[in-house]
Amino acid sequence: MTRVRLGAVAYLNARPLVEGLAGQTARFDLRFDAPSTCAALLQAGAIDLGMIPSIEYLRAPDYRIVPDVAITSRGEVASVALFTSRPLGAVRSIALDASSRTSAGLLRVLCARRFGIAPSFVTLAPDFGVMLAKADAALMIGDPALFVDHAALGLEKLDLGAAWTEMTGLPFVWAVWAGRPGAIDATGVAALQAARDAGVAGSDAIADAYCGAAHAAVGRAYLRENIKYGLGPDERAGLQRYYALAAAEGLVPEARRSAFY
Fold it and tell me: How far is CA 197 from CA 10, 94, 229, 247, in A?
C-alpha cells in the first residue's frame, strides 16, 4: 500500500474530517497547516491530497476532488467574517487574513455584488490589532474569527456565509479534499468518507478535546449547527455559482466544472 500524504487544515472545522486518520499510518501521512499553506503544498507536490480552499481547485487544470466530502455551510458559518468598527457603507479599505484564499475571493464577490462597496485590499497576518490599524475592516477566518469576543473589541461581525446564502439561496463550499489524478484510489476515498462519518458522529468529543473548557460550548454548537461535511447537489451548485462569479470578477481565469475521483 502506498501511503497518501494528506495536508489538512489546522482549524476546528477540519477535525471531524480527519477523525481516526492519524492512526492509519499504513495508509496516510497526515499534517496540519493553514488553508493557504495546504494549497501551496499541493501545488508544489509536497503533499498528495490537500484540504484546499475551494477556489484553489481552479488553479491547476488536472486537480480532482474527493466526492461527497467537503467543509460547507448553508447560512451562518460563524468562522468567516468581516469585522468592522464603522458602518459597512463607510468601509474604504479591508485587511485580508493571509491564511485565506477562498474567503478573500468570496469577500471580493460580495463587496461587488451585495455590499455595494469598492474598498482597497491589503493582505496581512491574522492579527486584529495590526489589521484594524491599517484598514477600516478585517476579514478573519477559522478559529480566530470563531472565538473572538468581537463586542468586547467594539466591532461588528458580518458573517460571510450568511451573506452568500442570502444572495444566492445556496450553500457555500469552503474547502475540499483535492489532488492530482491517481493520488488516491477508491479504497482511500472510502476511508476519507468513513473518517468524515465518524467525525460527525463524535463532533461533541472533538470540540471538547480541541477547544478546552473555555470554548467547548461554542465549539460544540459550531460543529453541530454551522459546519456541514457533505458535497451533494446543492453544495455543488453553490460551488459552481461561486466559480462563475469569481471568474466574472476576474479573480480566476475561468470557471470549470468540478471533476472527481
Answer: 19, 37, 9, 33
